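Please decode residue identities from the backbone states below.
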């Protein structure tokens, strides 16, 4: 007797489009999928098994657990690292900067999920701003200090 190991999934992508994947693993959906509407590879936000062989508790992909594993920094966690990040005081000209805490959260989310920067969820603001500010943190060695501090406190990164 042959057991079919393929499954059908409905996946919600970071571009807000929904795709149906046929003939994929019954337990796992890749973290990125080609969006047919955008013709670009996009990050998977949520994957739900929709075929008739899905069993109770077997209808969500591991990708959903991976992304839900990430928790934004709590106020306590932020207090451990906020002194590391030097923010300019005083008035600035032009558009206000994105909050540095949001940038740190975005970089930690990207690290945890493994998605490309351009697939960063909108809740973190512009991905271009996030990658630029993250690169500035790396260049100034602040990112190393942030990750060391969080690692000392046994936080998942």
């Amino acid at each position: 007797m042959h057991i079919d190991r393929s499954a059908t999934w409905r996946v919600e992508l970071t571009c807000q489009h929904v795709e149906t994947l046929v003939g994929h693993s019954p337990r796992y959906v890749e973290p990125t999928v080609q969006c047919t509407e955008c013709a670009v590879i996009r990050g998977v936000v949520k994957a739900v098994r929709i075929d008739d062989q899905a069993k109770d508790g077997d209808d969500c992909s591991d990708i959903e657990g991976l992304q839900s594993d990430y928790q934004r920094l709590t106020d306590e966690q932020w207090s451990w690292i906020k002194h590391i990040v030097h923010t300019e005081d005083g008035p600035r000209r032009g558009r206000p900067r994105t909050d540095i805490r949001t940038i740190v959260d975005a970089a930690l989310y990207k690290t945890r999920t493994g998605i490309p920067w351009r697939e960063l969820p909108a809740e973190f603001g512009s991905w271009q701003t996030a990658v630029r500010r993250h690169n500035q943190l790396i260049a100034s060695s602040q990112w190393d200090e942030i990750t060391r501090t969080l690692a000392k406190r046994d936080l998942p990164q």
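Observation: The longest strand covers residues 40-49.
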